[in-house]
Amino acid sequence: MPAPKFIDLVTGLFEREGVSASRARRVAELYAQASADGVHSHGANRVPHVLAWLRGGQISNHDRDPERVAAFGALERYDGHGSFGALNAEFCMDRAMALADDHGLGCVALRNTGHWGRPGNYGWRAVERGYLGICWSNTEPMMPAWGGTTKSIGNNPIVFAAPGENGAHLVLDIAMSQYSWGRLDSHRASGEPLPVPGGLDAEGQVTSDPDEILQRGTMFPMGFWKGSGLAIVLDAFAAILADGANSAKLTDGLGLSQVFIAMKPNALGGAGAAARTREVIEGLATANPEARYPGQAVLAARRESAQAGLFVRDDVWAQLTAE
């Protein structure tokens, strides 16, 4: 599907829910970009969920920017007031970059915000402007802490991004679970089993069935005890810096706490970030077989999308056009 056609349709749907034209279009563009980059679970196919959040009131104050509530040097704290998670996140990464212009580094914490869509959007936004970027979010409990069997920790996605040359940026976009919620949902919709086990079923047995995990079971943390520990500290750092809710207090992807960090590496001189990133990527080329670097698949997906358009599931397109 041509991206402009999708963006125009979704913009109109958001406007009908009372969202201003400029903000409606920007949200549509962010979800379209996720699909163009090959992250279909957090792109066009996620839009029906966003519409449901709008209509259900989970997205409130949808035309309001985050409000700064505290600041100290290069560290700032904002309240998202329940507005669009994607727009709040973009705002805060932009603010972190502005702080980095003045201080070399900027850190912005955000509370009371919603699901931010595809996390990698904000890492790519940073590297395409020459900044190192890090951002993460907590979530409602989705996994057992190591040694447990009930959901007690979030999958707390995190992004690391380093600028490279000619678009060859390093962008790692991962969740603390073995699979993200969106990846599980995509496998369930396609009927494909997971390539490796991703959690426990209702009887506590290891399973590769995404439906069992989503409906009746629990997801595994990546790296077992390591992912469990990392999820816990990411949750703590986000809640502390944002003075917001931790995972145990969250439900339905609402009221999240997030952190956005931008660094201006070339301010320190030296060979420059892009050259150092290129050296890292070139080092991977010596692997046998050659290893793929984080972000490489996105460039391939962009080339394909530029030719073939966006991938939108038939059921999603039917739902959107029936609105």
UniProtKB/TrEMBL annotation:
<protein>
    <submittedName>
        <fullName>3-dehydro-L-gulonate 2-dehydrogenase</fullName>
        <ecNumber>1.1.1.130</ecNumber>
    </submittedName>
</protein>
<dbReference type="InterPro" id="IPR043143">
    <property type="entry name" value="Mal/L-sulf/L-lact_DH-like_NADP"/>
</dbReference>
<dbReference type="Pfam" id="PF02615">
    <property type="entry name" value="Ldh_2"/>
</dbReference>
<dbReference type="InterPro" id="IPR003767">
    <property type="entry name" value="Malate/L-lactate_DH-like"/>
</dbReference>
<dbReference type="InterPro" id="IPR043144">
    <property type="entry name" value="Mal/L-sulf/L-lact_DH-like_ah"/>
</dbReference>
<dbReference type="GO" id="GO:0047559">
    <property type="term" value="F:3-dehydro-L-gulonate 2-dehydrogenase activity"/>
</dbReference>
<dbReference type="InterPro" id="IPR036111">
    <property type="entry name" value="Mal/L-sulfo/L-lacto_DH-like_sf"/>
</dbReference>
<keyword id="KW-0560">Oxidoreductase</keyword>
